[in-house]
């Protein structure tokens, strides 16, 4: 592509915010964001061609060697066909169309499919199933919210445009004064940029989220608590927060990994969801998890509508079974219960606990990923694919469950296929 | 009782799912027929005889069937799934989902038991001489109720999330218990002779936890009531001893601190801590 092209309303495929208002310029195979992209998004677009998997590779005598795409796909299908219990893992950084194909592969090979939520927001998913979710879109937060609580998350450093586009600064239909009209509360174990910007900051003892949440909930329900301080926060401050919660017009709790991955895990989220439910005696309140990867919400959605379960789904009997403590990727690898793996757009060797990562390097592994990762360095078959949202289009779900269509900006390198097509080819070979 | 002895030939590399190991499936079948029962290794269907040496005598009545399993069965899942009568003895460790949805009869395990065992236990007696893993006697994710009846005696330690969403029944643990004991409990009784980890009874509605050791950390949503000697505890242990022959090695007479909670939920649960 020689000429200069400008794309408007481009969707950024990095974090769960899925900002869809970017202006991008493409010239001579280079991408330059013109406006509204955050620093992370800018870096993703500018460096899209860095650290790419150069060609399909296979491990021959312990070394990666270049092979044709056909050969690599044949080998991948062979590994999956011969395995007794293959694991299909990843999914969060690719499109819904690819995820759907992965479910098909899992069903056909009698394997187990799991997505990256298993190491981040899985407790959220489990808790939603237990208690239900009182939900809103980010647009509703922009237009209505006057009390915003950030619990265990730091959007100013992780979801950079979240404050500007949805939660703190934007002026909406019923929030004409923007930031001035909103009361911001941050709950965290340490000071961060987000907590510095907040009107109220509750610094809590690490791992004590559940205690604080259940005391807030007890107070909302009118119970009496004798303690003077809970989780390092004085009772007066907690009571002040409870009053703010009861008297706001439209409140929202955003929570991140600080809550899902600290002690208590899904019980923390159950407590949060129950609190939001109980607050409806007084006012309108919603809760939104801060999802990380751009389509991790979509992975849950696709798995749920295809199999009935959001993650950790086992197809070994031919029908879907669900049990997070047993079929989740980390459990399977630590207990050595799988004998092959297909890793799609993720890097478990770098992110999993060491016994799990170690076992993954010992079993036949196939990686389908646009970029080089720790997992691709140890895999038996590595197949490069086009980058979702830049070199191929598709559908992704924003953190609040709104599906957004990703745009194609540039042609992928010759011979590099979108991962959806690669999955289709593997599926045919199985 | 007619004994059927299964000896594990070698430990399988991948876990096998053997829900066919129940008195219901074994009764009325000859040893050769038992060998042909199906077990699953991943997606492959295999036969029980591939993994076990089968000996003993044919049993006609289900209630007269006694299955004895020998070897390290920590990779054998679903032993005694939904069994309603008869007896199983495991002379060694047992894998996940032991006594899954068990409805009656008796299971005795002489070794340790893995995670997710006795899930949604309904009735019968389960005795474990070793330790048990996490999520023992709990509910499957998404299901509203966990253990619904029966008696479980654990002579070793118990892991985290024991008796999650328990609805009815009794669990006695001789040693210590992990975190989140009886989380979201609806009713029932859990007795621990050892120490209890963090947050026992979190989100509990009703039910009773009796602790003869120390509780590492109580939730602030449990309110202290008073210290007294509740009569029912003595009767409870007497009943266990006389009717079920379960002799709990502990002195029950004395004073107990009573807490009620979880006040963020219904708040009708109670925790008793023995003070001597």
What's the SSE blueprint?
The complex is a heterodimer of chains A (430) and B (276).
Chain A: E1 5-10, E2 22-27, E3 30-35, H1 39-46, E4 57-60, E5 63-66, H2 69-82, E6 86-90, H3 96-109, E7 112-115, H4 122-131, H5 138-144, E8 147-151, H6 155-158, H7 162-167, E9 183-188, H8 193-197, E10 200-203, H9 209-220, E11 229-230, E12 233-234, H10 235-247, E13 250-255, H11 257-260, H12 266-278, E14 284-289, H13 296-307, E15 313-314, E16 321-322, H14 324-327, H15 329-334, E17 340-344, H16 348-351, H17 354-362, E18 365-368, H18 374-378, E19 381-383, E20 394-397, E21 403-406, H19 419-429
Parallel strand pairs in A: 6-7, 6-17, 8-9, 8-13, 9-10, 13-14, 17-18, 18-19
Antiparallel strand pairs in A: 1-2, 2-3, 4-5, 4-19, 7-15, 11-12, 15-16, 20-21
Helix pairs in contact in A: 2-19, 3-13, 3-19, 4-12, 9-10, 9-12
Chain B: E1 2-8, E2 16-17, H1 23-26, H2 31-35, E3 38-41, E4 44-47, H3 48-51, E5 52-56, E6 65-70, E7 76-77, E8 87-91, E9 106-109, E10 125-128, E11 148-154, E12 168-173, E13 189-192, E14 196-198, E15 208-211, E16 215-217, E17 223-228, H4 231-244, E18 256-261, E19 269-274
Parallel strand pairs in B: 1-6, 2-7, 6-8, 8-9, 9-10, 10-11, 11-12, 12-13, 13-15, 14-16, 15-19
Antiparallel strand pairs in B: 1-5, 2-3, 3-4, 17-18, 18-19
């Amino acid at each position: 592509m020689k000429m200069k092209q400008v794309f408007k309303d481009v969707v950024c495929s990095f974090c769960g915010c899925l900002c869809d208002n970017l202006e991008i310029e493409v010239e001579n195979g280079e991408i330059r964001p013109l406006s509204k992209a955050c620093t992370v998004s800018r870096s993703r677009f500018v460096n899209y061609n860095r650290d790419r998997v150069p060609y399909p590779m296979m491990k021959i005598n312990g070394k990666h060697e270049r092979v044709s795409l056909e050969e690599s796909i044949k080998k991948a299908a062979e590994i999956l066909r011969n395995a007794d219990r293959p694991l299909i893992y990843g999914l969060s950084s690719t499109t819904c169309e690819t995820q759907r194909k992965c479910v098909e592969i899992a069903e056909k090979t009698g394997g187990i499919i799991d997505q990256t939520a298993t190491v981040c927001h899985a407790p959220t998913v489990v808790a939603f199933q237990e208690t239900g979710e009182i939900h809103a879109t980010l647009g509703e937060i922009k237009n209505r919210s006057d009390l915003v609580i950030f619990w265990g998350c730091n959007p100013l450093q992780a979801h950079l445009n979240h404050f500007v586009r949805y939660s703190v600064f934007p002026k909406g239909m019923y929030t004409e004064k923007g930031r001035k009209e909103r009361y911001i509360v941050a709950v965290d174990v340490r000071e961060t940029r987000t907590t510095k910007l907040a009107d109220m900051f509750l610094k809590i003892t690490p791992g004590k989220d559940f205690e604080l949440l259940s005391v807030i909930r007890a107070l909302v329900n009118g119970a009496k608590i004798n303690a003077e301080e809970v989780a390092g926060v004085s009772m007066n401050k907690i009571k002040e927060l409870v009053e703010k919660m009861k008297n706001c017009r439209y409140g929202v709790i955003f929570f991140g990994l600080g809550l899902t991955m600290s002690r208590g895990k899904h019980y923390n989220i159950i407590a949060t969801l129950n609190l939001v439910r109980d607050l409806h005696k007084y006012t309108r309140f919603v809760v939104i998890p801060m999802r990380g990867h751009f389509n991790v919400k979509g992975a849950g959605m696709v798995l749920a509508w295809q199999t009935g379960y959001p993650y950790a789904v086992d197809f070994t009997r031919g029908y879907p079974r669900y049990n997070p403590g047993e079929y989740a990727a980390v459990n399977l690898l630590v207990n050595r219960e799988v004998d092959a793996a297909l890793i799609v757009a993720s890097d478990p060797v770098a992110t999993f606990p060491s016994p799990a990562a170690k076992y993954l390097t010992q079993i036949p592994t196939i990686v389908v990923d646009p970029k080089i990762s720790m997992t691709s360095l140890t895999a038996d078959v590595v197949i490069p694919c086009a980058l979702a949202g830049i070199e191929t289009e598709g559908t992704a779900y924003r953190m609040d469950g709104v599906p957004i269509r990703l745009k194609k900006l540039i042609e992928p390198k010759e011979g590099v296929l979108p991962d959806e097509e690669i999955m289709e080819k593997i599926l045919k070979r199985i | 009782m007619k004994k059927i002895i299964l000896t594990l030939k070698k430990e399988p590399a991948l876990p096998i799912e053997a829900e066919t190991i129940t008195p219901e499936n074994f009764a009325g079948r000859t040893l050769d027929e038992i060998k042909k029962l199906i077990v699953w290794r991943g997606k492959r269907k295999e036969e029980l005889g591939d993994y076990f040496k089968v000996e003993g005598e044919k049993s006609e009545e289900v209630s007269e069937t006694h299955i004895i399993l020998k070897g390290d069965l920590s990779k054998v899942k679903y032993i005694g799934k939904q069994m309603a009568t008869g007896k199983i003895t495991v002379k060694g460790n047992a894998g996940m989902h032991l006594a899954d949805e068990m409805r009656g009869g008796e299971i005795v395990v002489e070794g340790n038991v893995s995670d997710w065992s006795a899930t949604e236990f309904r009735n019968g007696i389960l005795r474990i001489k070793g330790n048990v893993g996490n999520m023992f006697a709990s509910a499957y994710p998404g299901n509203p109720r966990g253990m619904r009846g029966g008696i479980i005696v654990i002579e070793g330690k118990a892991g985290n999330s024991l008796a999650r969403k328990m609805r009815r029944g009794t669990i006695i643990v001789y040693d210590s218990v992990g975190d989140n004991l009886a989380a979201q409990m609806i009713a029932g009784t859990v007795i621990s002779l050892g120490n209890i980890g963090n947050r026992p009874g979190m989100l509990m509605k009703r039910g009773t936890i009796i602790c003869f050791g120390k509780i590492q950390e109580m939730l602030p949503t449990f309110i202290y009531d008073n210290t007294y000697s509740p009569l029912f505890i003595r009767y409870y242990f007497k009943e266990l001893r006389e009717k079920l022959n379960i002799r709990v090695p502990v002195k029950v007479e004395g004073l107990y601190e009573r807490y009620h909670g979880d006040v963020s939920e219904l708040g009708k649960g109670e925790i008793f801590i023995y003070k001597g």
